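Field log, afternoon session.

UNIT: design team B
ACTIVITY: writing a sequence onto a fixed backbone
BACKBONE:
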C-alpha cells in the first residue's frame, strides 16, 4: 500500500458541478492522443481520481479558484509516469477548458476522521425510504472487507438534509451520498484513502480525504 498523491494546479474559470465522468473521459482522451508510447492509453484500476473543488453557484456550475486542484493517487512506482503524462495538459470538460500545471507530489496524511463527497454502491431495487439504511450497511460491509475499524455515517448538507449526491454517466443518473468515517487508526485511515469505498472510483467516487480539507467541490 505504498501510494502517493499528485496534485496539479488548475488554470481555468468554471466547470460543471457534476464533472466526475467528464473529467475521466477527458483524461483518457488526452492519454490516447499522446505520442509518447510509454504513456498508458487509459487509467488502470489502481489509479484513482478526485473531482476538482471550486465555489458552487447552486445552478450546476462551480467557479475555480487558487485552491482548485486536480488530484490523482497511484502506486509510488507509477508517479513519474502520471507526473509526465498529465503535466501541462489541456482538458476539455464538457466545453470547459482547463490546463493542469505546477504538479506537486504529496504523502498521504492519516486522520482519525475522513470524508468523501460521493460514495456509490449498486443497490437492489428497494423502497426509497430504506435507501439510507441499505447504503450505510453497504459502507460498513465495505469497511469490514478492508479490515478497517471505523464508523460510517451520512452527514447533512447546508440545508440540513441528508447529503444526497448524484453523478451523470452517459446520460444515466447514479445516486449516492456523502460519507464520513470516524474513529480510524492511522493505518486504517491510510488504507481507506487508498482503497476507498464503493464503485466508480475513476469518476471521483469513494475518494476520502481528511476532514480538515473542507472542499465545496463538485
Amino acid at each position: 500500500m505504498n501510494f502517493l498523491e499528485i496534485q496539479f494546479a488548475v488554470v481555468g474559470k468554471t466547470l460543471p458541478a457534476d464533472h466526475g465522468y467528464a473529467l475521466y473521459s477527458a483524461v483518457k482522451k488526452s492519454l490516447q492522443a499522446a505520442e509518447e508510447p510509454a504513456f498508458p492509453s487509459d487509467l488502470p484500476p489502481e489509479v484513482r481520481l478526485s473531482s476538482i473543488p471550486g465555489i458552487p453557484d447552486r445552478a450546476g456550475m462551480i467557479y475555480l479558484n487558487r485552491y482548485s486542484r486536480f488530484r490523482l493517487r497511484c502506486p509510488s512506482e507509477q508517479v513519474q509516469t502520471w507526473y509526465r503524462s498529465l503535466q501541462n495538459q489541456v482538458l476539455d470538460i464538457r466545453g470547459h477548458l482547463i490546463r493542469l500545471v505546477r504538479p506537486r507530489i504529496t504523502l498521504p496524511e492519516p486522520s482519525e476522521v475522513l470524508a468523501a463527497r460521493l460514495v456509490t454502491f449498486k443497490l437492489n431495487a428497494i423502497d426509497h425510504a430504506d435507501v439510507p439504511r441499505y447504503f450505510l450497511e453497504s459502507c460498513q460491509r465495505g469497511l469490514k472487507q478492508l479490515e478497517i475499524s471505523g464508523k460510517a455515517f451520512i452527514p447533512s448538507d447546508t440545508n440540513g438534509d441528508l447529503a444526497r449526491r448524484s453523478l451523470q454517466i452517459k446520460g444515466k443518473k447514479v445516486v449516492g451520498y456523502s460519507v464520513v468515517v470516524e474513529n480510524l487508526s492511522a493505518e486504517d485511515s491510510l488504507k481507506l484513502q487508498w482503497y476507498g469505498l464503493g464503485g466508480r472510483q475513476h469518476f471521483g467516487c469513494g475518494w476520502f480525504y481528511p476532514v480538515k480539507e473542507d472542499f465545496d467541490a463538485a
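LOG NOTE: DSSP finds four helices and 13 strands in the chain.
NEXT ACTIVITY: expression trials, pending approval
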